[in-house]
Write a structure and sequence with these properties.
The chain has 276 residues and is mainly alpha-helical. The chain contains 12 helices and 5 strands. The protein has a 3-stranded antiparallel beta sheet with strand order 3-4-5. Strands 1-2 form a two-stranded antiparallel sheet. Helix 4 packs across helix 8 and helix 5 crosses helix 9.
């Protein structure tokens, strides 16, 4: 995520999400001292307040949640690593424990919402995509069992779907009424009103099922859990970087290199056995 101002006003705010505190801290501020991190976090809060006054924030942006996110960065000195005590799988399972209403002759809004929520959570779990990347994904971006993403500078990357995620998406799209947006392509996930889902609505879906599963899980925790699974399965950090879409290998190394020391210990022991 790039955040900047120029002499004429605001630039590059379209990618802002209300978990900005966690995102910026984990991907950049963690590399500096606590004093410097707090200084920049304070500046970021001021800039956010400026954007609120200018009404320049993206649609659906929850400024209160963003301020709380930044506040958490400032007051939690132990905020240096993604939490490993969250169970994202339990959140996905909670969506499947929710009763799916039977199909009726007419379109059933409640049934469609449950199908959407299942597909959304499966995609977050299987791909490790950022919340805003999920929001911006279109139906045309789905290619069999993969999502083709286009980032800044026209750079493309692929996020791979699990069989469960592909099945959940197929079930959702098969029952969703035709979407005819006024302009642009068809969004993959829509709100109850048939419009592109917002970041705030995605956060609410995660929060709802996290509560059902009795887990303190936020959207970004799915991304961390995805990276953790890759590392534990022996995926090289350079490949983790590509799958997560980090622009710099230092970002991946800073956040995840020390994520699972047990994995590093096992790799070290295996290398010793090979020598012996």
């Amino acid at each position: 995520m790039e955040i900047s101002l120029d002499a004429d006003g605001i630039t590059q705010v379209a990618d802002l999400t209300d978990d900005i505190g966690e995102t910026v801290y984990l991907e950049w501020l963690e590399q500096v001292s606590a004093r410097t991190a707090n200084l920049y976090a304070s500046a970021l809060r001021g800039w956010l307040a400026y954007l609120v006054r200018r009404r320049a924030l993206p649609a659906g942006f929850d400024s209160l949640a963003a301020l709380e996110s930044l506040k958490a960065v400032r007051v939690q000195p132990g905020y240096h690593s993604p939490r490993a005590d969250v169970d994202c799988e339990a959140v996905v399972e909670a969506a499947y424990k929710t009763r799916l209403p039977r199909r009726k002759a007419e379109w059933n809004a409640t049934r469609l919402q449950v199908l959407r929520d299942r597909a959304l959570l499966q995609c977050l779990y299987a791909t490790g995509l950022r919340r805003d990347e999920i929001r911006r994904t279109n139906v045309a971006d789905i290619d069999d069992t993969a999502i083709i993403l286009t980032g800044k500078g026209g750079r493309e990357r692929v996020a791979f779907l699990s069989d469960e995620a592909a099945t959940a998406l197929g079930a959702y799209l098969a029952e969703r009424p035709p979407i005819r947006p006024r302009r642009g392509p068809q969004p993959l996930f829509t709100s109850d009103r048939g419009q592109r889902i917002s970041n705030r609505q995605i956060g609410r879906v995660v929060a709802h099922y996290a509560q059902q599963a009795d887990q303190q899980v936020a959207c970004h925790d799915f991304r961390h859990a995805y990276a953790r699974r890759l590392i534990r399965n022996g995926v090289d950090l350079a490949e983790v970087q590509d799958l997560l879409g980090h622009a710099s290998p230092e970002t991946t190394k800073t956040i995840y290199a020390r994520f699972d020391q047990a994995h590093l210990i096992r790799a070290h022991q295996q290398s010793i056995r090979k020598v012996v």
